[in-house]
Amino acid sequence: MLRFRRMRSLQKFASVHASVYNHFNLERSLTSRAHFKKNRAVALAEWRRLCTA
């Protein structure tokens, strides 16, 4: 947090980081490997679609 000169920059980073983390955090320990890989592929495809738009 010391790298951020302004509180606004820190808040913006934290907001974006939380959104991305929640998008990719799939609770690996609670699902089977096949289900995890399928969900991960869907999340990554959606992320790529959003980045190209």
State the order of secondary-structure elements, H for helix, E for strand: HH
**Share of residues in helices:** over 70%
- Structural class computed from helices and strand pairing: mainly alpha
Task: Calculate the mean pLDDT score and round it.
Answer: 81
- Contiguous runs where pLDDT drops below 50 for at least 5 residues: none
Largest sheet: none
Strand content: under 5%
Q: Cα distance, first to last residue?
A: 30 Å
Number of strands: 0
Rg (CA only): 15 Å
**Gross geometry:** elongated
Give me the number of helical elements. 2
Structure description:
With 53 residues, the chain is mostly helical. It has a domain at 29-53. Helices cover 72% and strands 0% of the residues. It contains 2 helices and no strands. It has helices spanning 7-24, 33-52. The longest helix is centred in the last third of the chain and has 20 residues, at 33-52.
Write the layout of secondary structure elements.
Blueprint: H1 7-24, H2 33-52
Key structural traits:
mainly alpha, 53 residues, single chain
